[in-house]
Fold this protein.
Amino acid sequence: MPKGHTQQRNKAFKGESKRRAKQKSEGKLKKKIKKQEIKQTKSKDGQQEIQIEKKVKDQEQKERVVKTVNTKIIAMFPMNQQSNIAALKFRLMQHLNIQQVGISSYCTQDCFLNVEANGKLIKQPLRFIFLDRNAEQILDACKVADIICPVLSCRDCNTNTISLDPHSNANAFDEQGYKLLSNLRAQGMVQQVCYIQDLDEISQSKKNVVKKLFTRYFESEFPGSHIVDDCSTLMRSVVVLHEQAVEWRDTHGYMLPDDLAYVNGELSITGTWRGQNGLSADQLIHITGVDDFQIARIELLGMIEQVYESNQPESLDPICRDKQHDIGDCDDLLKDIAGMQLQEEEEQMIEQESDVSYEDLDKEFEDEAQKKREQFEILHRDPEDLDYEDEVEYGVEVKLRERYDKYQGLKNIRTSEFDPLTFLPDEAEKIYNFRFLKKIKQDVLEEMKQKEQIKPGQRIKITLRNVPELIVQRLTQPNKIYVISGLLKHERKMTQMHVRFHRHQMHNCVLKSKHQVFAQIGFRRAHVNPIYSRILNNCSKTKYVKEIKDDTFYLASFYFYNSFPQQPVIFWQNDFDFRNNEIMGVGDIQRCDTFQVILKRIVLTGYPVKINKRKAVIRMMFFNPLDIKFFKPIELSTKLGLRGNILEPLGTHGLMKCMFNNFVKPNDVISLQLYKRVHPKFVNIQI
């Protein structure tokens, strides 16, 4: 027994333990509170810094836009047949007390209305552009406009039955208006002020109902826009709204001409240079819908007059003439190797025409195979009846080793390697290649800032050299809008352009590869011949498709002048008419790379005729033993997921013995997949 086992042990005092536990808990809480406060202060400081940086950037951008632009441009255009733009111009002139001025220059035509600043409400000069229902002119005007003003007339609104069926009785947007709206969305829109016309002609009892209905139409199609119904609110909204920066046009710089003059093959264009980047005399100038031109000189107008001559202008030749950029062609290795093997195999097949061990099997299926061949030659299956998407049909007498000698086998299109320097087209010697387009764009913009002679917001006179008279006649047509834009370095060089796009929801027709389409790329418009390919996940290669029937994203590849990313791309039909044809596809520039691998796939199919576990005899894929030996190294696959290889040909009628990785079923379809690199067709660019 221990010594103190009989001693009394009293219960410990609870207050001390509670006090100590309380102190410990309070200490832990204090530490936690301090840590939380430190984290909160850090997070608050970080968030405040980010918000301050955003505010500073937005303010700098606004100041840059406001300071550099002297005149605010407003484009007004109708969205239905009843809209009267001429009447709107007359009412606006009456409101501003402006009298009709004779046409003395380009900017004083009937489609323009110039409003000078008065120091009160109008603190900035305004230029209104009044446009008819010509979608080409509307798109060009919206490229340079700071504010767009769609106009809807409510004159044909059926007020008697509007409460029963508002959509059919409103007569707001018509079919052509919706087509124009889809084009504007694809190109990109700036700030909007929507105008409801002819509201005074509606009876007083129905005026509020009609106004709410048309306001709802504008809010659904132009969210966040200002909606007005008279000239006073229109002017207030136009003056209050700030210009919105559009990156793809501001990086190039652009100008709406004030005056044009043509003397001795030189075209002089006067106006105010706009955008965020300046201009130098060595750059090229692009006139939308016309062509590219070299600058002879630039005259700076205003308080300080100065002339900048062009010393080293960029070349207009888009073709690569330097041998250092010559990529060259690669020989078709498959064709050479196959030719060597075929000579030896044909000599052996002449000596041994048939295999004795499979002679009975060959005779057994000879008659049936002949019937199948005759049926195969006469009847062709529809695309819906084919087992595979890329399955091809061919005659019995076709030598597949010659017809598909440029094709090769790949185990997996995503993971298998394909050398991008092989099977290049002849055009690779003539065009330029831009592997790192975004980095090149950054270098070009930095170089431009160092060499710029004209800053945004300055009034200048650009003189272009070697301008044909036919082009000048087009430019001097009355009430015609033309946009002048600057080209960045390398944007005149020919390359292979790849555009990520999708078929527009309003276009239900099938898009076919190699068919000519009309494209708009930024400020440029031209006819191109694209080929389409499916974009593969986690893979740089793309798979060629003949037709596009869905609205998923595809890659369109064609030869065109180099253009840097973040420029909108719009596709229309080849026989393009702005009034009748809707938009086909919308996208943006992905890259300009000659080494982009686009693989075309074909599938040869056969059917098992005799099965022995994993082995099977396949027919109807080939009709010649030489073809079987030519494609023997390529792996086979089945529709049920098996993999296999060709062992040997049997007889002389196209039968072959194959081995698979599992048991073969009689209803399975055996396929052999071949791939070939394809390129777009090189054609002269037609603007």
About this structure: The longest strand covers residues 598-612. Residues 64-69, 323-361, 372-379 have pLDDT under 50 and may be disordered. The CA atoms of residues 92 and 231 lie 6 Å apart. The radius of gyration is 36 Å.
